[in-house]
Amino acid sequence: MIDLQLLDKKHDESRQGEALVLDAPTGNASRKLYIESYGCQMNFADSEIVASILLDQGFETTGDYKEADAIFINTCSIRENAEQRVRNRLSQFGVEKRRNPKLIVGVLGCMAERLKSKFLEEEKLVDVVVGPDAYRDLPQLISQVEDGQKAINVLLSREETYADIAPVRLNGNGITAFISIMRGCDNMCSFCVVPFTRGRERSRDPFSILAEAQDLHDKGYKEVTLLGQNVDSYKWKGGDESETAAVAVNFAQLLEKVALISPELRVRFSTSHPKDITDEVLYTIAKYDNICNNIHLPVQSGSTRMLELMNRTYTKEWYMNRVDAIRRIIPGCAISTDIIAGFCTETEEDHQETLAMMDYVDYDFAFTFSYSERPGTLAARKLPDDIPEEVKKRRLTEILLRQQESSYKRLQENVGKTIRILVEGKSKKSDADYCGRNDQNAMIVFPATAEIQPGQYVNVYIERCTSATLLGKIAD
Ligand code: 5AD
Ligand code: SF4
Asked: pTM for the full model?
């Protein structure tokens, strides 16, 4: 039953580097934009802001970079291989650029921020480099390039949240959408480059978040995912809009306000931080049926010594206590996580503690990584990257295998039951099947029938499962 092919699949791996296009072309555009995104969900949400800004400049999207007037690549720096992937892609775009010297090639996002002007020196075919807080400057930067210059803006901001820019939905299914509720990160985990590439944490005003969620609901969307590097520290200090609304809002309160838009609108969120997730958030999830029972709670390691070196600011016992609270307050809640194998000085005992933590929590899903040293981070400056590659790899495989057992066990609990799911569309593997997710974020595949449309909630009887998917049929 164990399918080794699935071991390495990240949930959104299939979206990496995919061309992002509008469902309906505007029709009156004069220039074609090709945009692709790498990395986290936040980057995908940012690409929708970028597209919104560029559509206002007379661009329309294309799924074929060979016919584009401008190519933008929204990049990720989280691990070295993410950066390598982008460089490989840039050399492919370079072939096109040599053929068509008027083509504009732009680099957006975390790599742009990390490498700054070095990018223009290293990658001669890149014309424009734009950091995550500078997308409003794109029209001006593009005209600079059209005047024959290279252009760069990598200024980070303490305020920018793009609150007033309505994202255009790219590659949308018209059913599920992301809403970015905050930007940046103040946590300074020692392995992580994000605080350097995305800057200081800031929360977007709740009025524009609610307006965006309401607008999606009005357009027929059935699920929103609230995004932030650390949603539990969402904090709106009050002010703006009307006097009555000008009170402070924390994450639990924001979650409740979004949930109240409609019981038919599902609400998800990511990412939670073990040090910040409160019982108030857990009680809010328990209170509303439409807030999904699925918490992404990255543990990183099960060893307190490692957690300290990682500057995660919690202990193994603290994390277990948070898991106990989730199990107590929201029975049946799915918990997923991120785990890093082979961080600096990790011993075999530390690694065993991570496996023991996995046994304790029995995660529904885990994103697992081998430690990759990132220049400029606290770990790169202070700690030795001393675990040999083959040891990292072996520990990672042990973690993956342990996770696969857990995922399978969790999914197996659904077999023989009827569960409610939101139909998202045709299954990737077959047009004869639909797919959708349950409250816990498990993927369900079942034979399509004429009466059922994407966007509907349906009851599916689960017949069997693999370690990644539930398979069933429509219940009568
Ligand atoms: N090496 C490996 N994994 C990392 N992550 C962040 N930085 C690194 C790194 N330098 C992982 C963490 C984080 C997830 C988004 O990526 O697990 O939670
Ligand atoms: Fe990186 Fe830690 Fe912030 Fe997550 S919480 S983005 S791992 S610094």
From this structure: 0.94
In a domain? residue 5: no
> What distance in Å separates the CA atoms of residue 212 and residue 179, rounded to the nearest whole number?
8
> Does residue 408 register a pLDDT over 70?
yes
CATH of the domain at 133: 3.40.50.12160
What pLDDT shows up at residue 246?
Answer: 64
403, 302 contact by CB (below 8 A): no
Residue 115: what residue type? L
Pocket of ligand 1 (CB under 6 A): 78-79, 191-192, 298, 300, 338, 340, 369, 371-372, 374
Q: Which residues are annotated as a binding site for [4Fe-4S] cluster?
A: 40, 76, 110, 185, 189, 192
Mean pLDDT, rounded, of the chain: 93
> For 14-157, where are the E strands, in sequence order?
31-37, 59-61, 70-75, 104-109, 128-130, 151-153
Mutate to test the pocket of ligand 2, among 79, 186, 187 (most ligand atoms within 8 A of CB): 187
Q: Residue 160: inside a domain, yes or no?
A: no
10 falls in which pLDDT band (50, 70, 90)? very low
Scanning 116-185, the segments in alpha helix (DSSP H) are 117-122, 138-146
Please compute Rg for the chain using Cα positions: 22
Would you state the pLDDT for residue 22?
Answer: 81
Q: Are residues 26 and 107 in the same domain?
A: yes
Annotated binding-site residues read: 40, 76, 110, 185, 189, 192
